[in-house]
User: What shape does this take?
Amino acid sequence: MRAAAVVLLLLLSPISIMHVTASTHDLLTCPETVPLLPGQPTTVSLIQHGVENLTLDVQNTSELEVRNLDSSILNGNRTWTMTLVASLTMANGHLDLQVDLNDATTVSSCTIDLWIRPASALVLGSSGTSTLTVNEGVTTQVAVNLTNVGSQPEDVHFTLDTASEWAWGWTLNGVQVDDPNVTVQPNELIYIGAWINVGVVGEDGRPLYGTGPAFTITASSDFDGRGDAWTFVLAMEEIRRVALESEVAMKPIAPGTDERIDVMVTNQGNVPSTVNLGLIALHPDGSVVDGFESIDRFQRNGWTAALFGALPSVPIEPGASRTFEVGLLAPWTDAGRLDVRIQAKIGSATAAVDVTGNIDLQRAFDVQDITLRCPDLEVDVPCEVRANIRNAGTYDDVASIALTLDEESDGIVNLSQTSERVVLNHGQQQDVLIARLTAHPDALAFEGATLNLHVGPEGEDLFNVKQLDLRIAPRVEWIFESVVQEEDARQRVSVTATLRNDGNIVDGLVVSMKASHGMDMSLVPPLGALVEDDADPVRSFEVEGLPIGDNITLRAWFDLPSDENVNGTVYVNLSVRSRYVPEQTFQHTVIAPYLGVPWQEEAQAEGFDLKAVAQQAWGLVQATWHIVLAVGLATVILNKAVLQRA
Assistant: This one.
């Protein structure tokens, strides 16, 4: 079956052609309209579906020249290309171009509407980039004139590109419109523009003075995409603002001591600025003391207030902050307060915040960040109980700490308290290690207990600050108590291993067997084990519900290699994986030597007994192990003595 289709791809140099649409006629898909510029070569690509060797006939007239008609195969289709050139004397308008796909006869055809006319020529009244100064929070209108200096009416498409989030809209000849696209006659002049809601300078000082977002207006012809563009930047005016933020509004101060309050001043303007800081004395109701002017230090009723780190001659960058301190020195008295207004000025902008120093004679402790540094308790890993204790009173004091376990915790949790009293200066805080907890060796997994933490001033009633719920962590532990291997006359090694559940939880096992050599081997599952159906030999099995302290006997066998050319050693791994914690594996490696074929023959001739040699080697180890252990122990004791003397 023959099939062909044509798809038009326009590659116009040096300009691009717009508005190319396609229609389908039988087996051909061709563009409905193709714009052509007189004398300008335009390349058209057509796709014939399939790769049959057909011919493409294109009408050629004295006003329209068809050049370079050729085809190539791509992705299973045949692609036709041709170049169309309209003569310079060709009249403006539309021309139908007949295209036929032939194989002796015409199998498909289509007609292309060629739109012939001169290139567009749109010119904006401004070019490049312009900078315009604007006021914050004010709607600004920007416009530029556009002239059609070409010989044809143009349908003009406008776009405005910006990264700004400021709201904006179009204006056409000074009137706000939703759609600015318009037809412009030859030599006609219009004004295209935009209204923009200018934002305000943020707390970060952006936009900086003299800077702002850029906007680009682009005008292009719907015929050939030609046009013009203009970019303008809306530069922000100079803004001066200031903000103050105090660390605290009320500062408790012990008699005869001083405290400092951190205050942060922020330049919320968009230019670097110096800050004028001062203090004003207030009455308790917030009114200014008569005759009092802003100053950096003053005394009143035995109190002293002063600024520290004001740095009046050092400018602050836009959006940046600086922290200074207000120091308050309290008199030696049992009651009283000082009210202070902190004032900041940048130019004519002013900000203020009020703070109070208050005599405080109370004894109190603030306990925070009480943590149990482990989710569950283990036998061998101490779990720390920590807390941050701060002297929230008004003088140096001692915090008393008490811990209590509920009655049900006996035999479950071991408690070792490390801190019973903590000496703290006024306002001092300390991270305290209160106790270390471990699980009792006989405690079962997931048994629970409750720990109560009591803190208060020494010599007074303590208050319960925290109740901690404790839980015993599950402990998975399997011990290979004994492993026995025996080799028979057929060079089959039988292995018997005894394991004991030394954990604190009922567990199951997944037992597997792997070897360093390819050889016959198998596990011997115990009664009740789970084995894959028809597994022979058995390389793994599962056992469930093994109680705490119970033993299980594992059996396996493997045949030593008999066809190797050299002597070697077989390594067989017996792996035991917990069912409760599958990632925890216990392993024992069985090691067995074997003879290569030449040595097997020699052993048979000379009566060589490999098993006897192995038994002799094991006997030597049993005879000398205690000597090696004694030498090692003596070395450790001597080294320790030398270090203590040094």
